[in-house]
Amino acid sequence: PCSLVVPAVGFTPTLLPELPFNPKENRIENQKGRVSGIPGLYVAGWLKRGPQGVIPDNRYDAQETIESLIQDLDSIKAPTRLL
């Protein structure tokens, strides 16, 4: 028995034009969370891999992104502007 069903279908992000968005996969182009072509910018969750998966997938994505960020800490420069 079920007393409530909440559909959650679809995902349309609001993006800035500078971001390398892949409309076919509905995600930001990245390598292990590092946004392609924008050093020091990172992404996780559905923007990282597209609208699929469950909470454990988001946790893995976040961990992978944080590992990339930690690896890059010494080389990250302060941004000259915010996106």
Secondary structure topology:
Elements: E1 21-22, E2 27-28, E3 30-31, E4 34-35, H1 46-49, H2 55-72
Antiparallel strand pairs: 1-2, 3-4
Estimated helix fraction: 25-40%
Structural class per helix/strand content?
Answer: alpha+beta
* Distance N to C terminus: 48 Å
User: What global shape is seen?
Assistant: globular
The H-and-E topology, N to C, reads as EEEEHH
Query: Spatial order of the strands in the main sheet?
Result: 1-2
Largest sheet: 2 strands, antiparallel
Mean pLDDT reading: 85
Rg from C-alpha positions? 15 Å
Report the uncertain regions: none
Strand content: 5-15%
Number of helical elements: 2
Total number of strands? 4
How would you briefly describe this protein structure?
This protein is α+β, with helices and mostly antiparallel strands and 83 residues long. It has helices at 46-49, 55-72; strands at residues 21-22, 27-28, 30-31, 34-35. The strands form 2 sheets. It has a two-stranded antiparallel sheet with strand order 1-2. The chain has a two-stranded antiparallel sheet with strand order 3-4.
Describe the model:
- The protein is an alpha+beta fold and 83 residues long.
- It has 2 helices and 4 strands, in the order ββββαα.
- The protein has helices at 46-49, 55-72; strands at residues 21-22, 27-28, 30-31, 34-35.
- It has a two-stranded antiparallel sheet. It has a two-stranded antiparallel ribbon with strand order 3-4.
- The mean pLDDT is 85.
